[in-house]
Amino acid sequence: MRRLLVCYGILNSVLYVSLLPLWDGFDEPFHYAYVQALSHGCGLPVLGRTTIFEEIWQSLAIAPASYAVKQNLPVVTTYEEWFGLEAADRARLRGQLERLRPGTGCASVGPSNYEAQQAPLAYALLAVPDYVLMRLPLIERIWWLRLLCAIAASISTALAAFRLARQLKLREEFAAAAVFVVLSWQMFYAATAHITNDWLAIPLAVLLVSAAIDVWERPGFRSAAALALTLSAGLLTKAYFLSFVPLTVGLVAWLLWKRRLRWTGAAGFAGLLLATAAPWYARNAALYGNLSGMQLTVRHGSLGELASAALRLPWGSLVLPTARGSLWTGNNSFTAFSAMTIGLMLAAIAAAAVLYVVGARRNPPSVAERIALAAMACFAAGLAYSAVASFAYGTGGSVIIYPWHTQPLVPILLCVLFLGLGRGRLPGRIVGIAFVCLWAYVISATYVAKLLPLYSGYAGRAQVASILRWYLGSFSAVREALENTAMRGPGLLFGLTAVVVACALTLAVVLAMRLGRSKVG
Question: Is 111 among the domain residues?
Fold first, then answer.
């Protein structure tokens, strides 16, 4: 089953990457500009100084993008405007796009790269294949890099989640169901199937929790060093790993105080962390006046301002939209799924949480569970801080928790929730079956009823009858949807879609049957 689930994740990755038009990944042009700066040997970008490369700037004026991108970059043509053009005009623009090539120097144009403050590890790993693929047209180069991101994320996240599930002592059928839900989570692919740093951050977050449990269960130099290196890799991938520092440092300090960990192990942990991650954050402090390099905290603000903002922030209006967006967000076009379906998904999560709490009263959580819960609490606190900073310093007092920032929580949360379902007897089995069936439906509908029609110019409601009529009469429109992707051929796209949907539904049936037969308690 594990191999089947990994293959399922790979198939989803290929399909999602192939459906996503150029630059409809969240902030993708600016993330790719970071990769180009490294692959061209231009050094590390600096926020406020580094701009994007000319190739990217020219492509933004040629390829269509969402209305959200146009709000920031008026030069962009929206999808609605694109499908209003004559076919010959679209073909001409596609030809211009395919003729774009990166320059040989470091000269750049266009707007400032607002992703320049990001930690470098994920981009450095992508810079090598970007250099190798430099002669390919931009649209093909982006497809290959996206594919590397998505497949690496799906494989590593699945394996890390299985490892964490084993440490939490999930039964095999519940562990497989939890990983299936992770690999059927639309926002997982929306976050990882484009050029960004989330493809590396999400599996590293799961591995970090697993490494922390290892240190507790087998304290020693090796486990402490593994924890330090995992945390360092996270810190060098995304600044939100700073939220895990109190947990990991506190865990090592506690083990040292209790004499379960020798001073050599604690010294190794501290030394590796300082040698690898500390120089980057010292650079942030020197350049931006803060550790994270966050755009909203580059300006200097006092703790009093943040405390005042936290008290004034309308938390009630933040939590539910964040939860909904974390379940499903239509890429950089920011479309939504059915409110009823999202409500059912939230209800399933809430029911699983209740069953976990009820089960925890009968069976107190193990230390491994407590570490996982503490990790989620630390990360949630980091997200809350980000929301407060956004409210305090953002334009117009806006409140933002971006849905892709919540994704590292998802695999950890699902492992914990399915642990509770495994203790819940019949109610746990019922909720587990509801999970796999509901998420299989959502990922299938994502491709068939949402993304394919969206990128083909369909503007109607996502109802079965209207979608079916549209498919029967709009094969040419589906072909047009591929104009801004690297996959040229509706037959191949439809075939891959059919395979992925069939896999999702088949795996859901098999897992539901296994959960239904499971003896839990």
Answer: yes
